[in-house]
Amino acid sequence: MEKEIWVNQSVAILCDGNNIERSIHELSGNTSTMINFDKIIPKLLSSRGLNRLIYFREGKNISSKLAERLYNKYYGSVVPCHKSADIPLSIKATQLAPKVDTIIIMSGDSDYVDLVSHLKSEGVRVEIAAVKETTARVLIEEADYFHPITKEDWFAYSSHKKAKEHYHDEK
To answer: What is the pLDDT of residues 79-103, one digit of tens each?
Structure first.
């Protein structure tokens, strides 16, 4: 009788919110589109354990609903950034490296290439999740795995009349 071997990986997902939002808005042609975490998180984890989910967001207009939802569903947190998310995300990734098996960076920004290289040298598996059309090829090549974010992974919210009209036009 053969024994099944279960490998349990601990995963941290670090999202550069501005980068992902810009990519989705660019591809959808709609600034009311947003990542659907309820679809993307299970897909990214692929039955691995979630250690942390951190959404880094530049600017003051961070949705308290998003922060509440990420916390309630995934014990996730939203981190406001003074300027770009690059430095705070990189610092958090290096802090988490000894505590997790895999770090998934949600961003297509080539600024993360050196971070990916460093994390891999520390023995961490590094995966990138981003919109392929707006992701730097060098980042995809440096990562251990690439998860394409596609239109199935986002939705258009309708908090404004204009967003509602656009959403109905897409159907």
So the answer is: 988 888 999 999 999 999 999 999 9
DSSP for 7-66, written as a single string: ---EEEEEEEHHHHHHHHHHHHT-TTEEE-HHHHHHHHHTTPEEEEEEEEEESS---HHH
pLDDT in tens, 32-62: 899 999 999 999 999 899 999 999 998 767 7
Query: Angle, nearest 10°, between helix axes 37-45 and 64-74?
Result: 40
At 128, give phi and psi (nearest 5°).
-115, 135
Q: Domains of the chain: which residue ranges?
A: 10-165
Q: What is the CATH number of domain 10-165?
A: 3.40.50.1010
Query: Do the strands 33-35 and 154-156 form a parallel or antiparallel pair, or are they unpaired?
Result: antiparallel
pLDDT reported for residue 59 = 78
Q: Which letter, b or e, does each residue of 21-43 get, where b requires 16 or more Cβ atoms within 10 Å of its Cβ?
A: bbbbeebbebbbbbbebeebbee
Place of tokens 């992701």: 135
